[in-house]
Amino acid sequence: MKxxxxxxLAAAGLCxxxxxxxxxxxxxxxxxxGLLMPMGDYNSFDKPGWVAGAGATYWLKxxxxxxRVDGQYSTTSHDGFDGSSKIAGGMASxxxxxxxxxxxxxxxxxxxxxxxxxxxxxxxxxSGSESKVGFGIGAGVALKMGTGSNRIVIATRYTSVSTSGxxxxxxxxxxxxxxxx
Length: 181
What we know:
mainly beta, Porin, 8-stranded antiparallel barrel
């Protein structure tokens, strides 16, 4: 789990460190936070929790397609008994902008594959952890802020992690801010 945290932090740091020189090439980077809604079996034992993340999208020149890399961390509490679930990981995705980048509101679609660590703590000192592949598909809208290039992004992405037994599925509902071109 500590390696996953370090990998997420390193990816976010790399995105920020490389953003300034590459911004002219179509790189946008940002942070987000919001509500994590457990789904499926995960919903049967956990309440909604919070999620936070960081990422970067490289928009291909002259195309409505971008390549996105992001990391996130979330936590939820068990419903009716002590303990919590924590999920940390990252995803590489393709993004398709439905409007031109110059539009005041730019809706988009996204889909990708990632790697996540799911840790469940029973509240009595016992916990289990699995690191598995996951996939996600989602949508959102990027809203221009004034005359600059900053945008407020409202997004969601159905995510399923292939954990033992049944998949851990969740829906993060996030609001964030992005910078860059």
